[in-house]
Amino acid sequence: MKVAGGGFEQCYNAQAVVDAESLLILAAQVTQAGNDKQQVEPMLAKLQSLPEGLNQPEHLLGDTGYFSAQNVGACHRAGTAPLIAVGRDEHHPHWRERFEEPAPLSASASPVEHMKRTLKTKAGRALYALRKQTVEPVFGIIKSVMGFSQFLLRGLANAGNEWTLVCLAWKLKRMAVLRSNSAQWD
Hints:
With 186 residues, the chain is of the alpha+beta class. The protein is built from 6 helices and 4 strands.
């Protein structure tokens, strides 16, 4: 992959789709693409290939690295409502902006315009806020608690297999927590 400062290094870009309710990883893959924009469609395909009855997401929450009109369209074709940040928000918006709802759109508005409007609504902001408490903790725990900070194997296929094992270890760890929590409620 191309790295900051120039040049290339052997490194990988690990991707994961995480369920907001259970924090279980639904799909994972490793790429050598430094840009996340090309990763939405392959991950949607992985989600659609899951067995019937597994969580098919209603919404896809993504940071600005995943935004493109093509990705918004891919989400709509997959039957998933995209909530992908278009850019960075101001740190200190005017207080009225927090309580006002955006104006309605015209009938000819594009899917991107609809998504931008949804992100400005109270419901859209609340839903998008789940992204930080869904995928970020999963990657943080995998790196810090489980100690996976770098791939040990070389080659894209081997790194992909290693990431699959790491994600499986996370799923087992998370399912043990979910099971013990459900046992407390019985």
